[in-house]
Amino acid sequence: MPRPATMKRWSNTKVASVGILLCLMVVALNRMEKERRAYAGANIVVDHRSLVSKRFEDFEAGGVNAVRQEQQNRSTILQRVFVANAQDKLVTDSAPVAVAGPTGARVFTPPKRNPANERALPSEVLSQYFPLEIYFHKYLPEQSPKSTPVKTVLNLDTKLPLKTALVVLELVKASTKKPMEDFFGAQRIQIEFAEAASIPPLVIKSLQVARYSLIVFANHEVYLGLDKVQKSKIDEYCQAYGVGILSFTDSSKIGEQELSSEYKIKMQHRMKLTGMKLNSEVKDLWRIAKPEKVFKDPLPNDNSEWTVFLCDHPSYQSLAFSTVAPGWKGSVEGINKAEFGLVVAVRDTGLIDGIHRIILGNDPEFFLNFIIAMDGLAFLSHGRLALPMERMVQVDVDDMFVGVSTVRTKPKDAEAMVECNKRIRQYVPNFKLFLGFTGAMFLWGGDDADEGERMMIDYAQEFIWFNHLYRHELLYITPTDRISGAMSKNAVFGKEKNLPVVKEYMILPHHAGVYPVYPEVFDEWEKLGYIKATSTLEYPYRHPQWGRRGFIHRGVMVLPRQTCRLFTKTISFDAYEGGKKAMDESLNGGYMFKIFLTTPIMVFMTHMSNYATGQLAQYEFEGVTKAIATWTNLKMVAPHPIDLANEYFEFYPDEVSPLWSDPARDPNLKELWRVNKTLPVFPKVLIAGPQKTGTTALMTFLLLHPNLVTSKPDPSLYEEVQFFSSNLYDNGIDWYASRFPEKKNDQTVLFEKSANYFSHHRTPQRVKELMPDAKIIIIMNNPSRRAYSWYQHLKAHNDSLVQQYTFYQIITADDQAPETLKIAHKRHLHDGIYAVHLSRWLLHFPKEQLYLVDGEKLIQDPVSVMNDVQKFIGVTPKIDYKTKIQFDTEKGFFCAKTTGCLGSGKGRSYEKMDKASEAYLREFYKHHNEDLKTLLDSIEHPHPLWLQQTENSQAPS
Ligand SMILES: Nc1ncnc2c1ncn2[C@@H]1O[C@H](COP(=O)(O)OS(=O)(=O)O)[C@@H](OP(=O)(O)O)[C@H]1O
């Protein structure tokens, strides 16, 4: 057998990341395409059983109509889409179905089913072909009749843009990216940036699948100025896939007037304007916006001025009007000085070239522009980028009865808070402030407790209360055994004072212990048994606010908290003037207003000190809720905190599982980590698998190096830690770090080997979050050999399944096979679909952090493999593995000179694979191996010799 070629570490040649991503997508989607072809003629449906939200499972019996109902209530749902087998009961012979096509959903009657054409495709197998997690929003306008019995079907033949927008800038740099990141990031819309001179490929060619739901120009001038090639690339893409263009303008840096004769539009820049009015005659676009509302004040132009549009073609429809500001000195022809005589936002309805465009006369900073842009992107993306219309609001006021006398609650504060509830209830039915209390502080006040605080107790029923700790202390100062005492004392205080406490919701002082997880807190909560939800600012990081996320840990729902804008402001100016200012800012679309626009489920936090004395925060909330009610059609509701928490995780089901990060990497998290405990240390290197490729040999050989140290032996674990790929991840980072011995010195490099990390879909992201610098070693041998080795492993363990079925029966099992056989089928073959798993790792790690080992070479020539691996790890001193490893003729494998050969479970001798299985597997892996070649090419990595040989040769025995 010829010697396998060395799989060298790839060169450092820079490959544009966009190119790589595209290739990855091509590889993964190539697979889909092949399957699609293979299953041509089958009905292709959205499998509603796969909807990520738990609640939708309940609707399975009700089928799609129930889901449709939900869509109408919420206006959008996030659904995971994949092909399901043609016998899916959701498809009937003649029911009308709505097909998601490039120009939105349309209803049609599917062709008669032909059972002869239908082939079963197990959904759990198919889902593996979607490593890139293709998600998109399906937008069904609110006005669609509720009673229509429509079934939702995705036909892969239609060209579906992904839930991503491409943002084109003249130059991609931090300052130009920032406003776009904020606008789209706050709505959790994924964006990719491109420079005007190098627009990336817009289509996955092999599939004719569009990559973007929307094209965005931060400055429309850039679009007009594109060179011919780039321009037609964009235009042809938009025409072919029904994708729209959303443009902003930047009138501060350019000449006074631009004429684009091609588009029959004139743009007059550097305008100073006053007032804005939306065009109420536009019927199909306004969703959040209330077109009947008129803004009368001068338009802000501190940083940039405004652009107005003069359009001379029926394709254009004015979206918003404004008026020349008094004192504007320009004298340009065509400027209509009448009230609302100028157009500041325009829509191109596509009569000229079939492309829908919306162009705004400034950036999204001004609040009405922000709303127009939100409605615009919902429209242009056929709802895929739309948010629901409901906003759930909770406002927590922490620190009741805490603080020095100057910031303690005064009678006027107590009165003001009651009033605040009433005023906000005009806009948010049933609204009540949530007050977090700390009993000990009140009692310390004793008779001296402020009169205002005593009044708060009298007014208790006007609010909803939740527990802080009894004392307002950092948890790491509080000895563990006092935590439960402090919790129950606070509860007793609440009872004594007859506070209407929602005991299921609790906030810890300083947010300590929630994230990073302080296991003792969750222990105590578990003991209490009733804590269901909390919230924190700290997960995964504080800024930007829209980056905050939630997670569920040990049954407790942890929600992200938004901070009120006034949170950090000192109350040094006059209270009422300050309050009014805050309200004005909200009314004019300030910071809080945008949070409300973009965040469907909000928990705000503020402190008592923002109410006491200054009473500022109440103005802010009154201001923002009034502004939202005034300017938008959004519906604000104030649910019970536990209902709100449940809703949160239904809306963001991907957040249920936490993503642990390293507290040492973030100053805030470091601060919250206990002072009396050293920071956890994690491994630097992972041997990720897959199983049966020689991972044990590689680990054993690494351990011959004096400075490479792996996890401690643990009888409760079966050989491997498997932290990232199992429920053990829920144990948290303390648990993981404690699996490893202390480092002997600075040169010690900790590593871990768990062979199922490679193919586990969540592992790459989890590793990236906790150990972003980790070096990942992946071994790939012939996947047929790998599958057979797994079979022999089961056989050696007298697995009942193997006693029942032959290797051939397992690998050829189809959808009709018994459940156990189907599971066995997947376990044998799934790990060997290397391209899919590798592309997932490459989405999270740069190629330089991944090291691919040729598994066949590891068997034949481990000395050179190990010498290279130690270089990749960067461990010192360098050792020569020639002095450590030698071939053992009895074992038939290389073994360590000191510790000997691997046990009888590795390097077994067994009969050759039968010819039929060999042929079947060669065929099964053929396309997957082709994909692997494409993927390796895209990262400029040489092909292992077994991959070069797979087409022609037999699978090695
Ligand atoms: N030096 C050396 N000694 C023994 N075995 C070696 C060696 N190098 C590679 N191999 C191959 O490793 C296969 C077992 O792979 P893993 O260690 O990854 O298996 S496991 O997933 O941890 O169970 C094992 O599979 P089997 O031959 O089927 O037992 C071997 O082919």
From TrEMBL:
Gene3D superfamilies: P-loop containing nucleotide triphosphate hydrolases. The active site is at K692. GO terms for molecular function: deacetylase activity; heparan sulfate N-sulfotransferase activity; hydrolase activity. 3'-phosphoadenylyl sulfate binds at S789, K906, G907, R908, S909, Y910. Residues 185-380 form the Heparan sulfate-N-deacetylase N-terminal domain. Residues 683-901 form the Sulfotransferase domain. GO terms for cellular component: Golgi membrane. Disulfide bonds join C895-C901. Residues 390-593 form the Heparan sulphate-N-deacetylase deacetylase domain. The keyword Transmembrane applies. It is an enzyme of class 2 (transferase). It is a single-pass type II membrane protein. Coiled coil: none annotated. This is [heparan sulfate]-glucosamine N-sulfotransferase. It comes from Plakobranchus ocellatus.
